[in-house]
Amino acid sequence: MPHKSLSTSVTKWQLILDKAMDRLIVLLAICAIPAIISSLARIPEMGFQSSMFIHIVVGILLIIISVFHKILTFKVKTNVILAISVAISVIGLWDWGLVGNGFVWMLLSAGLFALVYDSKKVLLFNSLFIIYSIIIAALYIYGILTIPVTHINYSQSFSAWSTAIFGAAMPLIIVSYTITALVNKAGLLIIALEEQKLKATQLAERDPLTGLYNLRVLKNRLEHALKLARRQPMQIYLLNIDLDNFKRINDNYGHCAGDIALQFVASSLLKVTRDSDTVCRVGGDEFLVLIDTALEIPILEVINRIRNGLEANIPYEERAIKIQASIGYAEYHRIKNENVTSDRLIRMADEAMYKEKAIRKKSESRKVK
């Protein structure tokens, strides 16, 4: 099943294409009016040619389509414009050879064709055009076809220049502008899609309350670190941090206070760890910190720094919420833990944390006595 954001983007792109085609049709219809007049003006000078008939028919069709473009589908409008541009280019090359605008309209046709058809069809279309051009070239070279006027007369004809400007140059400029606008729109659409993808990735990788990584991300990074550590000297430390008496905070102050406490812990862990370390909220009041480094570090000093950062009184509704945590850790050494897995390392850190929690409870009970 396609992703919802992808489906939305496809729909947006279709709307962009449809609007661009409507704009293109209207602009071409505007150009068609002076082009028709120019073609009619050439008849007394050059006689009536089949290309002039095509120009007149095309101009009328463009005007009609521009009037009814809202009720026509994108596919119908595109295919009609393609048929029109191909007809002009084919007849233009036949009647006028290199003097006319056949090549210009064929380039325009190729650009439009590429907007709606796949690369194989575009390649076939261009190949057919090249073959047709070679045939026309041979017919003109061997004198089978000739242009109806001399090059000098054509180049000095006001109507010929008008037809060239309004019948070829202007449409080419309009299509170029349309394609450029489409490329810009496509770029914005891609950026929006990438932003949606980034947000989806963040939702999949992050804990919504604290913004820390989730367990899936930590496991992936831990497995990667273990693979790396088996090939080269490297130290891996996994810290398990569990808040003491967190249930009492929720019971005495409410879940809102508990959320504030968890956010404080997350913020404190990020402050006292490196950017390269992975800080994760497993769930509830349990956190994991992955430290992988090529150098040995004084892990007990790191743990004490974390403990000191967490043991604080958080102000909440004119009261103070006391935070304390039990911290256990597991470490990987290439020689001692050659075959240890990520799950095993997580269990080792978990067991170490519960041992410390038990010791802390005994110590507190002795103080009470």
Topology:
Layout: H1 4-46, H2 50-67, H3 74-96, H4 102-116, H5 119-141, H6 151-155, H7 158-205, H8 215-229, E1 235-243, H9 246-253, H10 255-272, E2 278-283, E3 286-293, H11 299-310, E4 312-316, E5 319-323, E6 325-332, H12 342-368
Antiparallel strand pairs: 1-3, 1-6, 2-3, 4-5
Helix pairs in contact: 1-2, 1-3, 1-7, 2-3, 3-4, 4-5, 4-7, 9-10, 10-11
The biggest beta sheet reads: 4 strands, antiparallel
Q: Number of domains in the coordinates? A: 2
- Unreliable sequence segments: none
Topology order in helix (H) and strand (E) letters: HHHHHHHHEHHEEHEEEH
The assigned structural class equals alpha+beta
Overall, the morphology is: elongated
Radius of gyration: 37 Å
Tally of contiguous helical segments:
12
Number of strands: 6
Mean pLDDT: 79
Our measurement of the CA-to-CA distance between the termini, rounded to an integer number of angstroms, reads 64 Å
Question: Approximately what portion of the residues adopt beta-strand conformation?
Answer: 5-15%
Helix content: 55-70%
Enumerate the strands of the largest sheet in spatial order, edge to edge or round the barrel: 2-3-1-6
